[in-house]
Amino acid sequence: MSSLRFALAQFDFPVGAVAANAAKVGDLMAQAREGGASLVAFPELTLSGYPPEDLLLRPSFLAACQCELNALAGATNGVAALVGHPHSEGEVYNAASLLRGGRIELTTHKQALPNYGVFDDKRYFRPGSDSAVASIDGVPVGLLICEDIWEAEPAAKAAAAGAELIVVINASPWDDAKQSERERVLKERALETGCAIAYLNMIGGQDEVVYDGGSLLVNGDGTVAARAPNFVDAMLWVDFDRATRTLYADGWPAVEDNSSEATLYAALVRGVRDYIDKNGFSGVLLGLSGGIDSALTLALAVDALGAGRVTAVMMPTRYTSQLSLDGARAQAVQLGVDYHIINIEPMVDAFLGALAPAFAGKAADTTEENLQSRTRGVTLMALSNKHGRLLLATGNKSEMAVGYATLYGDMCGAYAPLKDVYKTAVYRLSRWRNAHAARMGEPEAIPSAVIDRPPSAELRDNQTDQDSLPPYDELDAILARFIEGEESQAEIAAHGFHADTVRRVVRLVLLNEFKRRQAAPGPRVTTRAFGRERRYPITSGWK
Q1: With a cut of 50, which residues of the chain have pLDDT below it?
Q2: Is 101 annotated as a binding-site member?
Q3: Is 288 annotated as a binding residue?
Q4: Which residue ranges does the record annotate as region Disordered (predicted)?
């Protein structure tokens, strides 16, 4: 049946870890050789990691990548390797080299350079002009890089040069719409060219971006032959039948739960784990309020790092309900994390006493509420400094969109796991996490009472979020249309939303850009994330 056996290395290759990445490539080449593969493919910019950003402007960095590539070429006896790397020859290219027989047999350059969303390729690279085709065990294989497969011409060039199979190496970040887009594009390219396509994707978290793997095999007739699991590191073995241009997955890991909630949860866990581990932090710290956002953040942190690397702190005031105290303690005990209760009421009183002369004659307002939040921020940062644990911010995308967050208060933190997660998705994820625990025969990770309660900042008596905001179902629907959909206020209102509500929400989004510029990074999981992707001016007359 098989004309060619090859392997796809769906693994993480961290940015800047050139020597370590090369060592991993060498180990995986040996594994591929032992498994009988004639070719092993590695992701886009394997040696440098993706995206290396301004590291690419350093000649010493480019030279280190080339040195490791040369050394790897000498270790290819018995197996060919397709390795992504930056290639400098006067200009810098996003390249892939075929290593075989102890040498660099060919180097091809990425032709289509994306410059949208999180991508900034045109800042660093020059485009290539041709699609490479190499014979592997007598099979003509086209070699493409990421965006090349999203445009018709590079694949068409490979097919015109005789390719029957296309191997495309990628660093394609995950979002909640990406997998269906990938399958649509790959099906189009397969039907256009008649080539089978093996799509290899990087895996791992890199600052705000999370790569999911999710590698794919698509037959020459456009049918999907196999899907690799998201966020699972794996060597993926493939057999190609040249006669039918059909691909067969050999022993790929099973996808246990492919629901949208399971995949999103896995993305957030991977983002937290890789941010903490790659930056060398011993653990994390967070404020546990008894509300759903901090409860979900705690569950994510424990799933990412283990309970022993997580500290939770409850900081009550007179406005903190018994439900919050009970919920926070129950979750901390259930998950087995280090847990502290620090009463901040005396600190708040001290601040208010010191400020009283300057506040004389002015009525109490949100200033006093924000002072509570900022006292918590100071407390958490002190604990973070003293214990060397990174502080996680617990706010969600809905709050960040409309500015329902306090600068230097609950926005304190170095990483924000829920930054790109709408409040309605926070509820879905929390319920999914508990359902997952039930399937595994485990107690719930997030107390049901915390999920079911009305959301509240608890900064004044009987406060709820809906005192200040529309219901979250309505708010998130408006935000998604305005942010992800780029719809105008009139277009949003035409979907049945009250025009005054739309106007108010949009005004809050535009008004609070200055806050978001000061927010912690967090994993990008939607198609339009604040920060790296959605970059609006702070100062603007556009309303």
Answers
A1: 1
A2: no
A3: yes
A4: 446-467
**Length of the chain counted residue by residue:** 543
* Angle of helix 292-305 versus helix 423-439 axis, rounded to 10: 50
369 marked ligand binding residue: no
What are the backbone angles phi and psi of residue 494, rounded to the nearest 5°? -65, -15
Q: Please tell me whether 384 is known to bind a ligand.
A: no
Of the candidates 529, 515, 396, 513, the one whose C-alpha atom is nearest the C-alpha of residue 457 is: 396
Domains of the chain: 4-251 (3.60.110.10), 261-464 (3.40.50.620)
The end-to-end CA distance of the chain, in Å, is 63
| pLDDT at residue 458, as a whole number | 60
pLDDT, residue 467, reads: 63
For residue 51, whether the previous peptide bond is cis, meaning omega lies within 30 degrees of 0, is yes
- Residue 129 is assigned to a ligand binding site: no
Task: At 539, list the tokens.
Answer: 């100062």
What kind and span of H or E run contains 227?
Answer: strand 224-227
| 146 noted as active-site residue | yes
Beta carbons of 203 and 174 less than 8 angstroms apart: no
Q: What percent of the chain has pLDDT over 90?
A: 88
Q: Which of 44, 68, 147, 444 is catalytic?
A: 44
Give pLDDT, residue 1.
Answer: 44
> Does 24 participate in catalysis according to the annotation?
no
This prediction's pTM: 0.95
Amino acid, single-letter form, for residue 530: F
- pLDDT score, position 336: 97
Given 3-state DSSP classes, what are the helix, strand and coil percentages for the chain, each rounded to the nearest 5?
40, 20, 40
Supply the pLDDT for residue 37.
97
| Catalytic option among 65, 146, 195, 412 | 146
> Sheet of 80-89: strands edge to edge?
103-109, 91-100, 80-89, 39-41, 4-10, 234-241, 246-250
**Among 24, 65, 68, 110, the one annotated catalytic:** 110
